[in-house]
Amino acid sequence: MAESALPFPTRAFDEETARAELYGLLAALLAAPPADELLARLRVAVTEAPARGGFLEAPWQALVAQARAQSAEQVRDEYEALFGGVGKPEVVLYASHYLSGFLNDKPLAALRGELAALGLARAEGVSEPEDHLAFLCEVMRFLIAGDDAEVCNLARQHAFFAAHLHPWVPALCDALQAHPAARFYAALAELLRAFVQVEAQAFEMA
């Protein structure tokens, strides 16, 4: 996580960078157990927004507090307990599960068609289906921070978010926060829930 990967921009023109970096941080924390360096940087992250009481401030502070309270090994063990193991994990991170009730179902096929239209594809050697939340967050980061204005623009962001994140991420957050093994990832779920709400409201206003 770069030092700039914070939900609180210091200047107005940093807002898009902050959005992209927060999507990137979410992707990194959901894709795999976080590396020691990532957790170390999270522990020393700034926790106060420029304007006190911002909507993301409290959940961000709670996540940083959990990072400080737990060892890297504890966070890795929690990740494996929630998302790993043999067979169906305790908490599922795939959109199709929430949108249709089945893994690798029609929502995944629709997503793959949209990714092809955007010129995106799963990297070679990656076995996870594209509807994993970490991958979807990476796509949003690309649509915000990418250089190709034909693809990376507000309209594309809104359409992708509305189709592939907003309909199901709150249900995932519910599942994470209800799980007795979740501490660090319960805090991450609250930040994710708040961020999705902020994104939805911002797209409606735009």
UniProtKB/TrEMBL annotation:
SUPFAM superfamilies: TorD-like (SSF89155). Keywords: Chaperone. Pfam families: Nitrate_red_del (PF02613). InterPro entries: DMSO/NO3_reduct_chaperone, TorD-like_sf, TorD/DmsD_chaperones. This is Chaperone protein TorD. The gene is torD.
